[in-house]
Write a structure and sequence with these properties.
54% of the residues lie in helices and 7% in strands. It has 107 residues and is mostly helical. Strands 1-2 form a two-stranded parallel ribbon. Helix 1 crosses helix 4.
């Protein structure tokens, strides 16, 4: 499945939450930096997701606070206008690549 933008990722970042997300979400390059405020895993890779969840659960409170601050900083750089521009860019990019999927496979 593919998420064109990833509103929930943006919401989590603005709320200061560390994020674990698949690379099938369009907002990931703007809102998630591996190891800085969470981890990106390959879409559909349950083993990588499990490893990221174990990593997240073992983060100490000092690092967790830093990851939270990083998420807030990355999330707050995106205004509604920039959000719309990023969504438009993702849609255009996927249309040109022929990566357009039916409604049934897009969440």
């Amino acid at each position: 499945h593919l998420e064109w933008y990833g509103v929930v990722v943006h919401e989590a970042a603005v709320a200061g939450l560390p994020v674990i997300c698949s690379d099938g979400v369009g907002a990931v390059p703007h809102l998630l930096q591996d190891g800085f405020n969470g981890w990106t895993v390959p879409a559909g890779d349950t083993e990588a997701l499990t490893e990221a969840m174990v990593r997240m659960s073992s983060v100490d409170t000092t690092r967790l606070a830093a990851m939270s601050a990083g998420s807030r900083a990355l999330g707050s750089r995106l205004s509604p206008t920039i959000w719309a521009q990023n969504l438009h860019e993702q849609l255009e990019s996927r249309l040109h690549k022929g990566d357009w999927r039916s409604k049934e496979t897009v969440r």
